[in-house]
Structure to design on (91 residues):
């Protein structure tokens, strides 16, 4: 595990003072599916929107608990948000 992940940092969205992101709404299909598998784009959007709702940041364990996913997937999605979407997530 790299030093970056060993620190107890919080993940913060850009513009952490209350960012310009709107709260996402779940459509009927997503509500019907419950906690099952979601496609990758939807999962990345859920992580990004959760971070935008918590301007003080969150720990990966808390993100995983709120979204019903593993901590490892949280780290994977945070890296994807930074690398592919170019959305800074580390504070």
């Amino acid at each position: 595990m790299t030093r970056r992940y060993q620190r107890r940092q919080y993940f913060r969205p850009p513009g952490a003072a209350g960012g310009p992101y709107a709260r996402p709404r779940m459509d009927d299909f997503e509500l019907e599916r419950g906690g099952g598998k979601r496609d990758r784009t939807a999962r990345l959007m859920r992580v990004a929107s959760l971070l935008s709702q918590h301007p003080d940041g969150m720990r990966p364990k808390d993100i995983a608990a709120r979204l019903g996913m593993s901590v490892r997937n949280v780290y994977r999605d945070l890296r994807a948000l930074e690398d592919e979407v170019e959305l800074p997530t580390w504070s």
Q: What stands out?
A: The longest helix spans residues 40-53.
